Amino acid sequence: MTELSRATVLRGVGLAAAGSLLAGGTATAAPPARPHPNVKLIQDYYAAYGAGDLEKLSTFFAEDIRWTIPGHHPLAGTKTGIDEVLAFFTQLGRAGFQAQPIFLAADGDWVVDLHRGWSTQPAGLDITWALAFRIRGRKIAEAINFAGDQHAADAFFWRTYPLAPIPDRLAD
Questions:
Q1: In this structure, what CATH number is given to the domain that contains residue 125?
Q2: Locate the SnoaL-like domain: which residues (predicted)?
Q3: Cα–Cα distance between 126 and 142 in angstroms, integer?
């Protein structure tokens, strides 16, 4: 687009706004749309996660929650029930995990989340993650986690959460 045509376009936009004001209208931005209630739920969940408030986090979970962590590392697998999910978050807290939401969208009972997730203690993992949350009764009933770089996640978790030697590793 040339400078002349840009100026013409901008002048046309300005004239349209002025015409609206002269006709008694107001030039205001559209009010922001309220998020889908399930998106709001996940936004509130991330606020509690960011505060490290495990008690508050537990209020977001259905009693029979299933949280699946893919990979081949000590924290991988499906956690079932609030206690197992909170134990997982306690372990993430040991590594100072942080999450910064990038994108949230809802469709029916599902919320898709894209976020930056990184460790601080030790630093070393900083990747994009995607989560699929299934919501039931205003609670998170299921979460399926997808790492943007599963190989990096596996290597980090093995370095950070080594298994105890065999005699101590197995339950009685």
A1: 3.10.450.50
A2: 42-142
A3: 24
CA nearest to 43, candidates 102, 116, 87, 88: 102
Does any domain span residue 119? yes
Residues 12, 86: Cα–Cα separation, whole Å = 57
Residue 73 phi, psi (nearest 5): -155, 170
The letter for the amino acid at 109 is D
The reported pTM is: 0.77
**pLDDT of the chain along its 172 residues, tens only?**
444 444 443 444 344 444 444 445 455 566 667 889 999 999 999 999 999 899 999 999 999 999 999 999 999 999 999 999 999 999 999 999 999 999 999 999 999 999 999 999 999 999 999 999 999 999 999 999 999 999 999 999 999 998 878 777 765 5
Strand partners, 80: 66
Which residues form the domain of 113?
A: 37-162
Domain-located, residue 149: yes
The residues pairing with 66 across neighbouring beta strands, listed in sequence order, are: 80, 142
Please, are residues 42 and 104 in contact by the beta-carbon 8 Å criterion? yes
How many domains are there within the chain? 1
Q: What's the longest Cα–Cα distance across the chain?
A: 83
Place of tokens 């002048």: 11
Looking at the domain assignment, is residue 144 inside a domain? yes
Q: How far apart are CA 157 and CA 124, in angstroms?
A: 10
